[in-house]
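Holo model, FO1. Inputs:
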Amino acid sequence: MVITVLSGGVGAARLLRALSGSLDPGEITAVVNVGDDLVLHGLTICPDLDTITYTLAGLNNDELGWGLAGESWRVMGELDTLGGESWFQLGDRDLATHLYRSQRLAEGATKTEVTAELCARLGVRIRLLPVTNDVIATEFDTDLGRLSFQEYFVRHHHDVVVASIDVVGADRARATPEVLEALSSATRIVIAPSNPLISIEPILAVPGVREILEQRRNDVVAVSPIVGGQALKGPASRLLAELGHAVSCVGVADYYGAIVGTWIIDEADRHEANDLAARGARVVVTTTVMAEGDNARRLAEAVLA
Ligand code: FO1
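Output:
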Protein backbone atom coordinates (compact mmCIF):
# COMPACT_ATOMS: atom_id res chain seq x y z
CA MET A 1 0.00 0.00 0.00
CA VAL A 2 1.28 3.46 -0.94
CA ILE A 3 -0.30 6.37 0.89
CA THR A 4 -0.19 10.14 0.48
CA VAL A 5 -1.16 12.33 3.42
CA LEU A 6 -2.28 15.96 3.12
CA SER A 7 -0.51 17.48 6.09
CA GLY A 8 -0.38 20.54 8.32
CA GLY A 9 1.88 20.59 11.40
CA VAL A 10 1.60 18.76 14.73
CA GLY A 11 -1.53 16.61 14.11
CA ALA A 12 -0.17 15.46 10.77
CA ALA A 13 3.29 14.80 12.21
CA ARG A 14 1.81 12.51 14.88
CA LEU A 15 -0.32 10.67 12.33
CA LEU A 16 2.68 10.19 10.01
CA ARG A 17 4.76 8.88 12.92
CA ALA A 18 1.98 6.44 13.82
CA LEU A 19 1.59 5.32 10.19
CA SER A 20 5.30 4.59 9.90
CA GLY A 21 4.85 2.08 12.74
CA SER A 22 2.46 0.04 10.58
CA LEU A 23 3.78 0.69 7.05
CA ASP A 24 7.23 0.97 5.47
CA PRO A 25 8.06 4.73 5.69
CA GLY A 26 9.26 4.47 2.08
CA GLU A 27 5.62 3.94 1.08
CA ILE A 28 4.37 7.12 2.77
CA THR A 29 4.41 10.59 1.22
CA ALA A 30 3.27 13.76 2.98
CA VAL A 31 2.05 16.68 0.86
CA VAL A 32 2.69 19.59 3.19
CA ASN A 33 1.13 23.03 3.65
CA VAL A 34 3.45 25.96 2.93
CA GLY A 35 0.88 28.74 3.51
CA ASP A 36 2.42 29.42 6.97
CA ASP A 37 5.89 29.96 5.50
CA LEU A 38 7.56 33.29 6.07
CA VAL A 39 10.71 35.23 5.40
CA LEU A 40 12.15 36.80 8.55
CA HIS A 41 15.68 38.20 9.09
CA GLY A 42 16.21 37.28 5.43
CA LEU A 43 15.61 33.59 6.24
CA THR A 44 12.93 31.33 4.72
CA ILE A 45 11.09 29.49 7.50
CA CYS A 46 8.70 26.60 6.76
CA PRO A 47 6.98 25.76 10.08
CA ASP A 48 4.85 22.79 8.96
CA LEU A 49 7.65 21.13 6.99
CA ASP A 50 9.99 21.60 9.97
CA THR A 51 7.48 20.39 12.58
CA ILE A 52 7.00 17.19 10.60
CA THR A 53 10.71 16.73 9.87
CA TYR A 54 11.70 17.23 13.52
CA THR A 55 8.90 14.95 14.80
CA LEU A 56 9.77 12.12 12.41
CA ALA A 57 13.46 12.52 13.27
CA GLY A 58 12.57 12.28 16.99
CA LEU A 59 14.01 15.76 17.56
CA ASN A 60 10.81 17.74 18.16
CA ASN A 61 10.14 19.92 21.17
CA ASP A 62 7.01 18.34 22.66
CA GLU A 63 6.53 21.07 25.27
CA LEU A 64 6.39 23.90 22.74
CA GLY A 65 4.72 21.89 19.95
CA TRP A 66 7.20 23.41 17.48
CA GLY A 67 10.96 23.66 17.11
CA LEU A 68 13.68 21.37 18.42
CA ALA A 69 14.12 19.64 21.78
CA GLY A 70 16.94 20.88 24.00
CA GLU A 71 16.74 24.30 22.39
CA SER A 72 18.61 27.43 23.55
CA TRP A 73 17.71 31.03 22.70
CA ARG A 74 20.96 33.04 22.76
CA VAL A 75 20.61 34.49 19.25
CA MET A 76 17.06 35.71 20.03
CA GLY A 77 18.34 37.29 23.25
CA GLU A 78 21.05 39.20 21.35
CA LEU A 79 18.57 40.17 18.64
CA ASP A 80 16.24 41.54 21.29
CA THR A 81 19.10 43.62 22.73
CA LEU A 82 19.73 45.04 19.27
CA GLY A 83 16.05 45.96 18.90
CA GLY A 84 15.48 43.33 16.20
CA GLU A 85 12.21 41.49 15.69
CA SER A 86 12.02 38.78 18.32
CA TRP A 87 8.28 38.04 18.59
CA PHE A 88 8.72 34.98 16.37
CA GLN A 89 11.14 32.86 18.34
CA LEU A 90 13.86 31.05 16.43
CA GLY A 91 15.94 28.79 18.65
CA ASP A 92 19.70 28.50 18.18
CA ARG A 93 19.48 24.92 16.90
CA ASP A 94 16.42 25.61 14.75
CA LEU A 95 18.22 28.54 13.11
CA ALA A 96 20.63 26.12 11.45
CA THR A 97 17.71 24.70 9.45
CA HIS A 98 16.63 28.16 8.26
CA LEU A 99 20.22 29.13 7.40
CA TYR A 100 20.71 25.91 5.43
CA ARG A 101 17.37 26.26 3.60
CA SER A 102 17.86 29.93 2.78
CA GLN A 103 21.36 29.40 1.41
CA ARG A 104 20.23 26.48 -0.77
CA LEU A 105 17.24 28.46 -2.08
CA ALA A 106 19.58 31.37 -2.89
CA GLU A 107 21.73 28.89 -4.85
CA GLY A 108 18.69 28.00 -6.95
CA ALA A 109 17.51 24.81 -5.24
CA THR A 110 13.74 24.34 -4.92
CA LYS A 111 11.89 23.96 -1.61
CA THR A 112 11.22 20.35 -2.65
CA GLU A 113 14.95 19.69 -3.09
CA VAL A 114 15.94 21.40 0.16
CA THR A 115 13.26 19.46 2.07
CA ALA A 116 14.61 16.18 0.68
CA GLU A 117 18.15 17.18 1.67
CA LEU A 118 17.15 18.09 5.23
CA CYS A 119 15.16 14.85 5.60
CA ALA A 120 18.08 12.78 4.32
CA ARG A 121 20.49 14.46 6.77
CA LEU A 122 18.11 13.95 9.70
CA GLY A 123 17.25 10.34 8.80
CA VAL A 124 13.58 10.95 7.91
CA ARG A 125 12.42 8.19 5.57
CA ILE A 126 8.86 9.38 4.88
CA ARG A 127 8.93 11.56 1.75
CA LEU A 128 7.92 15.15 2.53
CA LEU A 129 6.75 17.28 -0.39
CA PRO A 130 5.83 20.95 -0.13
CA VAL A 131 2.61 21.23 -2.15
CA THR A 132 4.24 23.85 -4.38
CA ASN A 133 7.63 25.45 -4.93
CA ASP A 134 5.88 28.75 -5.58
CA VAL A 135 5.25 31.25 -2.81
CA ILE A 136 1.76 31.11 -1.30
CA ALA A 137 0.77 32.96 1.87
CA THR A 138 -2.26 32.47 4.09
CA GLU A 139 -3.55 35.87 5.25
CA PHE A 140 -6.41 36.99 7.49
CA ASP A 141 -8.83 39.90 7.36
CA THR A 142 -9.36 40.67 11.04
CA ASP A 143 -10.69 43.37 13.29
CA LEU A 144 -7.05 44.53 13.50
CA GLY A 145 -6.77 44.72 9.69
CA ARG A 146 -4.93 42.41 7.31
CA LEU A 147 -2.54 40.03 9.09
CA SER A 148 0.02 37.56 7.77
CA PHE A 149 -0.27 34.00 9.07
CA GLN A 150 2.33 34.29 11.79
CA GLU A 151 1.20 37.79 12.83
CA TYR A 152 -2.25 36.27 13.41
CA PHE A 153 -1.04 33.01 14.93
CA VAL A 154 1.94 34.01 17.05
CA ARG A 155 2.00 37.79 17.44
CA HIS A 156 -1.72 38.02 18.26
CA HIS A 157 -2.01 34.46 19.70
CA HIS A 158 -4.91 33.80 17.24
CA ASP A 159 -7.01 35.92 19.59
CA VAL A 160 -8.57 38.31 17.05
CA VAL A 161 -11.86 38.18 15.18
CA VAL A 162 -11.38 36.86 11.63
CA ALA A 163 -13.73 37.92 8.82
CA SER A 164 -12.07 35.99 6.00
CA ILE A 165 -8.99 33.98 5.08
CA ASP A 166 -7.11 34.12 1.76
CA VAL A 167 -4.35 31.94 0.43
CA VAL A 168 -2.57 34.62 -1.55
CA GLY A 169 -0.88 33.32 -4.69
CA ALA A 170 -2.56 29.90 -4.57
CA ASP A 171 -4.52 30.43 -7.79
CA ARG A 172 -1.26 31.07 -9.70
CA ALA A 173 0.78 28.42 -7.90
CA ARG A 174 1.71 25.15 -9.55
CA ALA A 175 1.59 21.89 -7.65
CA THR A 176 4.92 20.15 -8.15
CA PRO A 177 5.03 17.15 -10.50
CA GLU A 178 6.02 15.03 -7.49
CA VAL A 179 2.86 16.11 -5.64
CA LEU A 180 0.55 15.43 -8.58
CA GLU A 181 2.17 12.04 -9.09
CA ALA A 182 1.97 11.16 -5.37
CA LEU A 183 -1.74 12.04 -5.33
CA SER A 184 -2.55 10.24 -8.57
CA SER A 185 -0.64 7.04 -7.84
CA ALA A 186 -1.32 6.51 -4.10
CA THR A 187 -3.44 3.54 -3.11
CA ARG A 188 -5.02 5.82 -0.53
CA ILE A 189 -5.05 9.58 0.09
CA VAL A 190 -5.36 10.62 3.72
CA ILE A 191 -6.37 14.05 5.03
CA ALA A 192 -4.61 14.50 8.38
CA PRO A 193 -6.51 15.88 11.40
CA SER A 194 -4.99 19.32 10.76
CA ASN A 195 -6.86 22.62 10.76
CA PRO A 196 -9.16 22.47 7.69
CA LEU A 197 -9.21 26.23 7.11
CA ILE A 198 -5.55 27.13 7.52
CA SER A 199 -3.55 23.90 7.11
CA ILE A 200 -5.46 21.77 4.59
CA GLU A 201 -7.15 24.56 2.57
CA PRO A 202 -3.83 26.02 1.29
CA ILE A 203 -3.02 22.55 -0.10
CA LEU A 204 -6.47 22.11 -1.70
CA ALA A 205 -6.31 25.65 -3.10
CA VAL A 206 -3.35 24.88 -5.35
CA PRO A 207 -4.83 24.14 -8.80
CA GLY A 208 -5.09 20.45 -9.57
CA VAL A 209 -5.05 19.12 -6.00
CA ARG A 210 -8.76 19.33 -5.16
CA GLU A 211 -9.61 18.00 -8.63
CA ILE A 212 -7.57 14.82 -8.03
CA LEU A 213 -9.30 14.27 -4.67
CA GLU A 214 -12.71 14.78 -6.29
CA GLN A 215 -11.90 12.18 -8.92
CA ARG A 216 -10.49 9.77 -6.32
CA ARG A 217 -13.05 10.39 -3.59
CA ASN A 218 -13.47 6.66 -2.88
CA ASP A 219 -9.78 6.44 -2.01
CA VAL A 220 -9.76 9.52 0.25
CA VAL A 221 -9.82 8.98 4.02
CA ALA A 222 -10.08 11.99 6.34
CA VAL A 223 -9.34 11.91 10.06
CA SER A 224 -11.61 14.40 11.82
CA PRO A 225 -9.79 17.31 13.49
CA ILE A 226 -12.87 17.74 15.71
CA VAL A 227 -13.16 15.55 18.80
CA GLY A 228 -16.10 15.82 21.16
CA GLY A 229 -17.41 18.86 19.28
CA GLN A 230 -14.19 20.86 19.44
CA ALA A 231 -10.68 21.09 18.02
CA LEU A 232 -8.00 19.56 20.23
CA LYS A 233 -5.56 22.41 19.66
CA GLY A 234 -5.22 25.81 18.06
CA PRO A 235 -7.86 28.11 16.58
CA ALA A 236 -9.86 25.64 14.43
CA SER A 237 -13.04 25.76 16.57
CA ARG A 238 -13.05 29.52 16.76
CA LEU A 239 -12.29 29.99 13.05
CA LEU A 240 -14.97 27.51 11.95
CA ALA A 241 -17.55 29.37 14.05
CA GLU A 242 -16.40 32.85 12.99
CA LEU A 243 -16.55 31.90 9.33
CA GLY A 244 -20.05 30.43 9.63
CA HIS A 245 -19.31 26.69 9.72
CA ALA A 246 -20.64 24.25 12.32
CA VAL A 247 -18.00 23.25 14.87
CA SER A 248 -18.47 19.53 14.36
CA CYS A 249 -17.34 16.66 12.15
CA VAL A 250 -20.29 17.46 9.87
CA GLY A 251 -19.21 21.12 9.72
CA VAL A 252 -15.76 20.06 8.52
CA ALA A 253 -17.26 17.52 6.09
CA ASP A 254 -19.48 20.22 4.56
CA TYR A 255 -16.50 22.57 4.35
CA TYR A 256 -14.43 19.98 2.44
CA GLY A 257 -17.30 19.05 0.12
CA ALA A 258 -17.31 15.94 -2.05
CA ILE A 259 -13.67 14.91 -1.68
CA VAL A 260 -13.86 12.49 1.27
CA GLY A 261 -14.95 8.87 0.80
CA THR A 262 -14.33 7.74 4.39
CA TRP A 263 -14.47 9.74 7.61
CA ILE A 264 -12.63 8.51 10.68
CA ILE A 265 -14.21 10.13 13.73
CA ASP A 266 -13.76 9.80 17.46
CA GLU A 267 -16.01 7.75 19.76
CA ALA A 268 -17.06 11.05 21.32
CA ASP A 269 -18.63 12.10 18.00
CA ARG A 270 -20.36 8.80 17.21
CA HIS A 271 -23.73 10.61 17.15
CA GLU A 272 -22.58 12.39 13.95
CA ALA A 273 -22.04 9.14 12.03
CA ASN A 274 -25.50 9.06 10.42
CA ASP A 275 -25.26 12.67 9.22
CA LEU A 276 -21.85 11.96 7.67
CA ALA A 277 -23.18 8.79 6.02
CA ALA A 278 -26.09 10.85 4.61
CA ARG A 279 -23.42 12.91 2.82
CA GLY A 280 -22.26 9.81 0.95
CA ALA A 281 -19.27 8.90 3.12
CA ARG A 282 -18.38 5.68 4.90
CA VAL A 283 -17.78 6.32 8.59
CA VAL A 284 -15.30 4.61 10.91
CA VAL A 285 -15.54 5.35 14.63
CA THR A 286 -12.41 4.87 16.75
CA THR A 287 -10.26 6.75 19.26
CA THR A 288 -8.49 9.54 17.38
CA VAL A 289 -6.67 11.45 20.15
CA MET A 290 -3.10 10.44 19.38
CA ALA A 291 -1.55 11.89 22.53
CA GLU A 292 -3.30 9.16 24.52
CA GLY A 293 -1.86 5.67 25.00
CA ASP A 294 -2.35 3.17 22.24
CA ASN A 295 -4.63 5.42 20.22
CA ALA A 296 -2.06 6.50 17.63
CA ARG A 297 -1.46 2.87 16.66
CA ARG A 298 -5.20 2.15 16.56
CA LEU A 299 -5.81 5.25 14.45
CA ALA A 300 -3.04 4.27 12.03
CA GLU A 301 -4.61 0.81 11.70
CA ALA A 302 -8.02 2.39 10.99
CA VAL A 303 -6.49 4.63 8.30
CA LEU A 304 -4.77 1.64 6.66
CA ALA A 305 -7.64 -0.85 7.07
N1 FO1 B 1 4.79 29.31 17.51
C1 FO1 B 1 4.61 30.17 18.54
O1 FO1 B 1 3.56 30.13 19.18
N2 FO1 B 1 5.58 31.10 18.86
C2 FO1 B 1 6.76 31.18 18.20
O2 FO1 B 1 7.59 32.04 18.52
C3 FO1 B 1 6.98 30.25 17.13
C4 FO1 B 1 8.16 30.22 16.42
C5 FO1 B 1 8.37 29.23 15.45
C6 FO1 B 1 9.60 29.12 14.81
C7 FO1 B 1 9.83 28.14 13.87
C8 FO1 B 1 8.79 27.24 13.56
O3 FO1 B 1 9.01 26.27 12.65
C9 FO1 B 1 7.55 27.34 14.18
C10 FO1 B 1 7.33 28.32 15.14
N3 FO1 B 1 6.11 28.41 15.79
C11 FO1 B 1 5.94 29.32 16.81
C12 FO1 B 1 5.00 27.53 15.44
C13 FO1 B 1 4.20 28.05 14.22
O4 FO1 B 1 3.91 29.39 14.29
C14 FO1 B 1 2.80 27.38 14.12
O5 FO1 B 1 2.67 26.31 14.97
C15 FO1 B 1 2.48 26.90 12.75
O6 FO1 B 1 2.77 27.80 11.73
C16 FO1 B 1 1.00 26.49 12.67
O7 FO1 B 1 0.96 25.26 12.06
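The pocket of FO1 is lined by residues 8-9, 36, 45, 47-48, 50, 66-67, 88-90, 94, 150, 153-154 (CB under 6 Å). The CA atoms of residues 262 and 282 lie 5 Å apart.
Archived with the compound record.
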